[in-house]
Design a protein that fits this description.
The protein has about 350 residues and is of the alpha/beta class. It has 9 helices and 8 strands. It has a domain of about 180 residues: NAD(P)-binding Rossmann-like Domain (Rossmann fold). Strand 1, helix 4 and strand 2 form a beta-alpha-beta unit.
Length: about 350
C-alpha cells in the first residue's frame, strides 16, 4: 500500500510541473509555394495535361460549328416555308422555288423565319357581353392573346364558351370597380351595362362602373404603357337639338334624369380619358357607338331592333313610339368590331380605329 501511495504521489507531482518548465509552443511551418518545375510535374503526372487539351478542343469545336448549325436550321425553315407557300398556290409539288432579290435574276433570296405581325396581349373589359364577345372573336382570330374581364352582370359565359379550349384565351371574373394588375399591350374598355333596362336597374353601380372602372383601367394603361380604347355612346349628346350630331356638338343632357347615370357617366369617362392623354401621355381612342345589332343580343334589353325581333317572335304587334317620324342610325356588330379593332394609323374624328 505504501508503494502504491508513493507511485500516486509521484504522478501527482509530475502533473503539477509548472508550464514554464515545459517545452515552448512552436507553430507549424508554412509550406513554400510550388516552384515551376513542381507545377509542370503535377500537370504531366497522370496525363492531366492531356485531359485539359481535350476539353479545350471540344469547346473550340462547339463554338466553331454553332454558326454553321444555326444557318443550316434557318435554311431548312426557309425551305419549309417556301414549299408550303408553293403548295398553297399551285396545289402541286414544286420542283424548286427561288425568290429573286434586288437586280440579280438568278440569285436565291432567303425569307426571314417568323415573319409576320407581333402577337399582342390584349385585355377586354366586358368581353362576355354582346359587343365584347364579338370583339374577342376578332382579336383571337387575328392571332392575339386576349384576357377577358367581366363580372357577368349583363355578360354571359355562353358568348365565350367556344373559346375556353383556346390557349390564347383567358377569362377572369372581376369587377373593374376594383383595381387589377396585368401586363398588356392594349386595353379595350367596354365594361358597362348599355341598355336602359340594365343601367336603370342599379344606377349607382352604373355610374361607379363608368367612373371608377375607367379610372382603374386608365391607371393600368399608364403603368404598363398600353393603348386604351374607351367605348362611349351616342347618349353623351343627350336629347340632341341638332340632327345629325357633329363631333363639335356638346350635347343636351339632363344631369339629374333617370338616364343620367349612363349619360353623365360616359361623359365623365371621356373626360378622364382625355385628361390621362393630355396629362400622362396615355394613347387614347374614344368610340361613340350608336345603335348596334346582331347575334348574341339580349332579347329583352329594351332597344329598337331587339324589341321588334322579340315582338315578331312572340307574334305581338310591333310598337313604334312617338309619332313614328324619328330617325335612328344602325350598324351591324361585325362592322363595329372591324372598325374598333383596326390596327392602322387612320382615324375618323372621335371614332379613331387602331
Amino acid at each position: 500500500m505504501k508503494q502504491l501511495h508513493k507511485q500516486m504521489s509521484s504522478k501527482r507531482d509530475e502533473e503539477t510541473i509548472p508550464m514554464s518548465q515545459s517545452s515552448p509552443y512552436s507553430p507549424k511551418t508554412l509550406k513554400h509555394p510550388r516552384s515551376l518545375p513542381r507545377s509542370l510535374h503535377y500537370l504531366f503526372r497522370e496525363q492531366r495535361l492531356l485531359f485539359i487539351l481535350v476539353g479545350i478542343l471540344i469547346g473550340s469545336t462547339f463554338f466553331i460549328l454553332q454558326p454553321s448549325l444555326s444557318r443550316l436550321g434557318a435554311a431548312e425553315s426557309t425551305s419549309l416555308i417556301t414549299r408550303s407557300v408553293s403548295y398553297a398556290v399551285t396545289d402541286s409539288p414544286p420542283s424548286r422555288s427561288t425568290f429573286n432579290s434586288g437586280g440579280g435574276g438568278g440569285r436565291t433570296g432567303r425569307v426571314p423565319v417568323g415573319i409576320g405581325r407581333k402577337r399582342l396581349r390584349i385585355v377586354v373589359t366586358g368581353g362576355a357581353g354582346f359587343v365584347g364577345s364579338h370583339l374577342v372573336d376578332k382579336l383571337i382570330g387575328r392571332g392575339d392573346e386576349v384576357i377577358v374581364i367581366d363580372n357577368f352582370f349583363t355578360g354571359r359565359k355562353e358568348n365565350l364558351v367556344h373559346l375556353f379550349s383556346n390557349p390564347r384565351f383567358e377569362l377572369i371574373r372581376h369587377d373593374v370597380v376594383e383595381p387589377i394588375l396585368l401586363e398588356v399591350d392594349q386595353i379595350y374598355h367596354l365594361a358597362c351595362p348599355a341598355s336602359p333596362v340594365h343601367y336603370k336597374y342599379n344606377p349607382v353601380k352604373t355610374i361607379k362602373t363608368n367612373v371608377m372602372g375607367t379610372l382603374n383601367m386608365l391607371g393600368l394603361a399608364k403603368r404598363v404603357g398600353a393603348r386604351f380604347l374607351l367605348t362611349s355612346t351616342s347618349e353623351v349628346y343627350g336629347d340632341p337639338l341638332e340632327h345629325p350630331q357633329k363631333e363639335t356638338y356638346w350635347g343636351n343632357v339632363n344631369p339629374i334624369g333617370e338616364r343620367s347615370c349612363y349619360d353623365e357617366g360616359k361623359r365623365t369617362a371621356e373626360t378622364l380619358a382625355m385628361d390621362y392623354h393630355r396629362g400622362a401621355g396615355v394613347e387614347v381612342r374614344i368610340a361613340r357607338i350608336f345603335n348596334t345589332y346582331g347575334p348574341r343580343m339580349c332579347l329583352d334589353d329594351g332597344r329598337v331592333v331587339s324589341n321588334f325581333v322579340a315582338q315578331t317572335i312572340r307574334k305581338h304587334p310591333m310598337t313604334v313610339y312617338g309619332d313614328g317620324k324619328q330617325t335612328r342610325s344602325f350598324q351591324y356588330v361585325s362592322d363595329l368590331v372591324r372598325t374598333c379593332s383596326f390596327n392602322g394609323k387612320r382615324s375618323c374624328r372621335t371614332l379613331q380605329p387602331w
